[in-house]
Amino acid sequence: MRSPLSLLLAAPLLLANADTTGTAPQEAAPPPPPNQSVERSSEVKAMLEAAMKAGDEGAVNAIVKYAKAADKERAAQFEKTASAWKRERKEAAERRLREAKFLDLVKGRAELGGYFTTGNTETLGLTGILDLKREALRWRHKLRVQADHQESLGQTVRERYLAAYEPNWKIDDRAYVYGAAQFESDRFLGFDERYAISAGAGYSAVKSPALTLDLELGPAFRYTEFVTAPTERQIAARGKLDLDWKISRGVTFSQDASAFVEQQNSTITGKSALRVKLFGPFSTQMSYAVNYESAPPNGRKSTDTTTRASLLVDF
To answer: What number of other Cβ atoms are within 10 A of residue 302's Cβ?
Structure first.
């Protein structure tokens, strides 16, 4: 006779081997959560179409980047759509450039403002600058005319004029060949007339919607008529840097610098500017410019600085 204790220990095994045909059916497992991939894909597609319709390439790139993380199954499709849109957009832009008339591609900016100078002159004055630029498919033309003038008690205390023309022939999307011709006059800096011509290579080291950086380097020739010194004719090396940074919507920082390096006298110029868009074509700008001559005529300082507050009009 089996003891009650042995029956108790064997009970689990008996229950496990028992017939389960009469037991109640188990409760069905809950269905899996609904697949949100289709809904997410539709949202991404709608955002992508809106960005392409607005012509915002930066937004298109951002949405495609988001899609790769949020919807990996359809990321390749979105990337293909964006690539096709960029290609069509580029072809349309090139077609417009080929078919445009000369003046259709000319854009300009006029600047009028006041300035404060230190160095060979310390005074308040007015300045005017006109910049014109024509951007075609293969050629880019840039023209600048600038005049600074100030009179005090009937006497001229600052007088500077500059005219510069630079054509660029584009090799590809970044590299180009440049030519440059420049005239300037600043008798308070020590020269009545100075002419410079140069040719060389240029490269857009950074080219994005928010930041651009152009670099140029090449040989140059300068002819200078000094106020109190003999005329100079010198072979030089020319370098130039143009940087534009869109800090935020309507706010842009720019840094321009150029250098003529020669045996007798080298010249370095630089300009830092912060531009804020006001409304329509109008904007305001604060700038600080430096002109440096390594070997100025006797009685002249080597460095002039100019601080300007200006009103700009784009057209």
So the answer is: 15
